[in-house]
Amino acid sequence: MDYYKIIGGKKLKGEVEISGAKNAALPIIVASLLADGETELHNVPNLKDILTIIKVIECLGAETEFNTEKNILKIKINKIKKAEIPYDLVKTMRASVYVMGPMLARLGFADVSLPGGCAIGERPIDIHLSGFESLGAEIGVERGYVIAKAKKLKGTRFIMRKVSVGATINIMMAAVMAEGETILENCAMEPDVVDLANFLIKMGAQIEGAGSERIVIHGVKKLKPVTHTIMPDRIEAGTYLLAGAITRGEVTITHAVPEHVSALCNALSEIGFIIKQGNDWVRVSAGKKLRGVYVKTLPYPGFPTDLQAPMMALMTTLPGISVVNETIFENRFTHVGELRRMGAHIETEGNMAIVHGGKKLSAAPVMMSDLRAGASLVLAALAAKGISEIRRIYHSDRGYEKLSEKLSMLGADIKREKGGGY
Ligand code: EPZ
């Protein structure tokens, strides 16, 4: 298995172009199932999760052609078939459950393996399912699969008990072709939801309010295939800003949406980093005096949980105490043990982590436990003294396109090596 070998201590400098957003591309690829004909998606990142979702839609009869050099994905739908989405696919990627919305809308039927728990917590899909029930579907669980059936989905008013990106996306996709008006309350306001809504609107859907807490959908009979460009990845953008910050270098992210990384930029400014930005770029550079910071993860526009682990790596290098309050997922501190192996002093209690900063990190062999925990280890290794070897990098392959190439362009000493066995 491949691993990363990183010689830490280099200040990163320069510009890095941000790829298309994984978490917007996943539902948009699935939403292409809603129309017969050829959909063309641009700026699709070449990632493992994208290849998995392509396999998922292929189970339902989609024909695809992915030009990974140009990041263009063509999806042809002649007729979608009634098929089950197997456990093998859903267990590698939970976002596979996104097919339930479009399947219910088009076939009145969905048969998808129920995802189990995962590295970052229990992560149920009960809100997705209650939303479908509210639209008129009957839900059952058999042999580990969720079976949803509906003769005709009907407009409804549904209040989500908790803000959920996935449930907002899935229910919105089911409702676009339901009969009448659907009002969704307590919706996720993430830019990924907005990009999907814009895609659906281009296809002919009638959706108002995406990006706010209340989304109103007027069902239509038919949608048409369109061409769409996926928005930039705000989590990748944030990770490179943190790479600049942790090495005390000067990194500019380009092809980005500055507004999408505002919560991170506010935290970086509070720490003492200098942030400059233009229409589609943001630059971070080290200020004279840095201090610890308090970060609480929240739904958008709050501080994203997906940047919590990378942020914690930075905190270990700041003077004084920093605090993390993780409010989205109950088990998202799996990076802490590995950061400790690199010399970090971090205490955790429940969903709080107290980081005693100012310690010089030292290189160590470490292992990724999930995508963002992996990013946090890469950042720590960039700042640590010595040579770190990071294993299980299939986790970062899920969500960071050309990670080692992009970091090398910024001056990092990082190599992807073959072998290592675990
Ligand atoms: C999305 O996951 C992202 N995944 C995650 O990114 C991200 O961490 C998360 O949103 C939060 O921003 C994709 O977009 C593919 P949620 P999702 O539903 O939709 C609870 C990454 O690293 N909940 O907003 O699964 C849930 O357990 C990934 O790129 C229920 O209780 O997250 C969590 O505590 C990891 N019942 C909270 O809501 C439900 O039915 C928010 O989860 C659904 C969710």
Structural class: alpha+beta
CATH class of the largest domain: Alpha Beta
Uncertain regions spanning at least 5 consecutive residues: none
The CATH homologous superfamily of the largest domain is called Enolpyruvate transferase domain
Second CATH tier, the architecture of the largest domain: Alpha-beta prism
Distance between the termini: 7 Å
Characterize the main sheet. Answer: 4 strands, mixed
What proportion strand?
Answer: 15-25%
Order of strands, main sheet, comes to 21-22-1-23
Helix content: 25-40%
Number of domains: 2
Strand tally, please?
Answer: 23
Mean pLDDT: 95
Ligand set = ligand EPZ
Radius of gyration (CA) equals 21 Å
The number of helical elements comes to: 14
Gist?
This protein has 422 residues and is α+β, with helices and mostly antiparallel strands. The chain has 14 helices and 23 strands.
What does this molecule look like?
The chain has 422 residues and is α+β, with helices and mostly antiparallel strands. It folds into two domains: 3-19 and 232-417, Alpha-beta prism (UDP-n-acetylglucosamine1-carboxyvinyl-transferase, Chain); 22-227, Enolpyruvate transferase domain (UDP-n-acetylglucosamine1-carboxyvinyl-transferase, Chain, Alpha-beta prism), CATH 3.65.10. Helix content is 31%, strand content 25%. The chain has 14 helices and 23 strands. It has helices spanning 22-31, 48-59, 87-92, 100-107, 126-134, 165-175, 191-202, 234-246, 262-271, 308-315, 334-341, 371-383, 394-397, 403-409; strands at 3-7, 13-17, 37-42, 63-67, 72-77, 109-113, 138-142, 145-149, 157-159, 181-185, 206-208, 215-218, 227-229, 250-254, 274-277, 282-285, 294-296, 321-325, 345-349, 352-356, 365-367, 387-391, 413-417. A four-stranded mixed β-sheet has the order 21-22-1-23. α6 links the parallel β9 (157-159) and β10. The longest helix is centred in the middle third of the chain and has 13 residues, at 234-246. The protein is globular, with a radius of gyration of 21 Å. The mean pLDDT is 95. The chain binds ligand EPZ.
